Amino acid sequence: MNRAMAIARREFSSYFYSPIAYVVIITFLIASGFAFYRDFEPGQAAAMRSTLDWMVWFLVIIVPVLSMGLLAQEWASGTIETLMTAPVSDSEVVIGKFFGNLGLLVVMLLPTLLYVVLLTLYSRPDFGPIFSGYLGIFLVGALFVAVGLFCSSLTRNQIVAVVLAILLLCLATVIPYLIAQYASLRPVFRTVIDQAVYRRYSDFSRGVLSTGNIVFFVLTTAVFLFLTVKVLESRRWK
Amino acid sequence: MISVSRLTKAYGNVVAVDEVSFEVGKGQIVGFLGPNGAGKSTTLRMLTCYVPPTSGGATINNFDIFHQSEQVRQSLGYLPENTPFYGEMRVEEYLHFRGRLRGMDRTQRNERIEYVVKKCWLADFRKRVIGHLSKGMRQRVGLADALLHNPAVLILDEPTVGLDPTQVIEHRNLLKELAGQHTILLSTHILREVEATCDRAIFIRQGRIVAQGTLEELRTSRRLQSRVLVECRGPSEQVKNTLSRVAGVSKVELLNGEHRGSEGYVTAAIRSQESRDVREEVARTVIQSGWPLREIRLEKGSLEEFFVELMATQAMGRPGEEA
């Protein structure tokens, strides 16, 4: 586990050597600032529901950009050879990369706690939904990072990785949302759509903590991490 | 220390490494020689557990590369071809990272980094960003990394490519210093490299070992193929027949054929039985026959020639094959 930690640390700090982390974080903060503006108007409930809901959509783009290089870059530059010939296992590499990226995501979310402070200064918000909303964002973020990492393991081209990840994430969020908006669905399909990430997430932002939802996110994240380990293993057999 | 038996790697129908077997004893430096695409890198990658072999196996430090991959990797330091790096990291930071990957604690890391940085002439470059270093300097960082955990075995893939002449010499001296403490297997396509540092050489061509042994052994076996060249003025047929009868001579060839060369001189190439020196006898015979003698010399069958031959056949060999 120490080795996974070493990889996570390296991955996390390497974000700050390149402008990409700063650009992405600033973009995210500006976007969520606009979203918060709507929550902060007089007459609105003292909550962050729309801000948190919007953040999920932002993450669909932002996480793939942050995770595209995790493994694709290693394949492209050949550093995978030095990495894998050190005494580390495939799963340690995957777990390390995952937590390195997730760490950055947490750092990115920290400044948004300022909004909570602002809300408390001007009103008396209900902290329950805010807390569960943040927990939800963390779980969604973790799943997105796992998907991004998986896509990054498939190719040595970062562009391919980022496009593929955005596509997959849209399939789990934007597309079911649009379908649910514009089509009347038979109950069977309705059940399928209800599995979509944004549907499950909206429970969190409403302040509902259900075990089912938590298990859903933890499990899907684990599945993508597992798939990534398998891809890493199989690429060595080529 | 390194024991390889019938190691084979096939990519589809292309056999990159074909039943390669060899041993490297403790503390030895062994050079792995061959042209580009001969299968050197593939062999080294199998030994470092980066690619699994198609068949055959190997042990390093008595650990099996297949079943004890982690112990194998723990006991070796590897410098891959082209030495890839995380370009954004600083030298010292990178070495700390590599140390952590190998489970070294902070004290160990500080101690060893101090040592390898001094050994690899990196003392002034500890805080430099790796991506900004020259090729030669990066090569040193790679070597420092390989040495970091004081591994029993060092595997170096083309360690001197891209170094300037001074750096090459420094590098050789360092390798000699390290031999004894570490068992070293290095690959190269430069024969002088092996002559300068290695105890033994393994020649590989198209995935197969074509010769191996100490350089002295390899030289002796080549010397058997040395020949004496005689240039004298006389009737070619007669020269050939007379020289064939000299004691110790096994075969005579006329190099300029049946035609007389310039000013009626002919050149005969004489092979002797079992590295016997026949020069004196040949000279006496030529003089006694009354043919003016212009030159007589021993042409040594050298390792260099053998090597050039080896490189040439590969170049004409299978095209489009990767290393």
Report on this structure.
Chain A has one domain (2-235). Chain A contains 13 helices and no strands. Chain A has helices spanning 2-15, 19-39, 49-67, 69-77, 79-84, 90-109, 113-122, 127-154, 158-172, 174-182, 187-194, 197-205, 211-235. Chain B has 323 residues and is an alpha/beta fold. Among the domains of chain B are: 2-75 and 151-221, Rossmann fold; 227-299, Alpha-Beta Plaits (2-Layer Sandwich), CATH 3.30.70. Chain B is elongated, with a radius of gyration of 26 Å. The model of chain B is unreliable at 317-323 (pLDDT under 50). Classes of the chains: A mainly alpha (238), B alpha/beta (323). The A-B interface holds A 2-3, 5-7, 9-10, 14, 17-18, 77-79, 81-89, 236-237 and B 45, 48-52, 70-71, 73-74, 76, 78, 80, 82, 84-89, 97-98, 100-103, 145.
Short account of what is shown:
Chain A contains 13 helices and no strands.
Q: State the helix count of chain A.
A: 13
How many distinct beta strands of chain B?
14
The name of the CATH topology of the domain at 2-75 and 151-221 in chain B is Rossmann fold
Largest interface: A-B, 24 and 27 residues
Task: Specify Rg of chain A, calculated over alpha carbons.
Answer: 19 Å
The average pLDDT score of chain B comes to 85
User: What amount of the residues of chain B lies in strands?
Assistant: 25-35%
List the uncertain runs of chain A.
Answer: none
The total domain count of chain A is 1
Taking the sheet with the most strands of chain A, its summary is: none
Give a short account of the largest sheet of chain B. 6 strands, mixed
What is the level-2 CATH architecture name of the domain at 2-75 and 151-221 in chain B?
A: 3-Layer(aba) Sandwich
What is the H level of CATH, i.e. the homologous superfamily of the domain at 2-75 and 151-221 in chain B? P-loop containing nucleotide triphosphate hydrolases
Q: In terms of quaternary structure, what is this?
A: heterodimer
Report the portion of residues of chain A in β strands: under 5%
User: What's the total helix number of chain B?
Assistant: 11
Helix-strand pattern of chain B: EEEHEEHEHHHEHEHEEHEHEEHEH
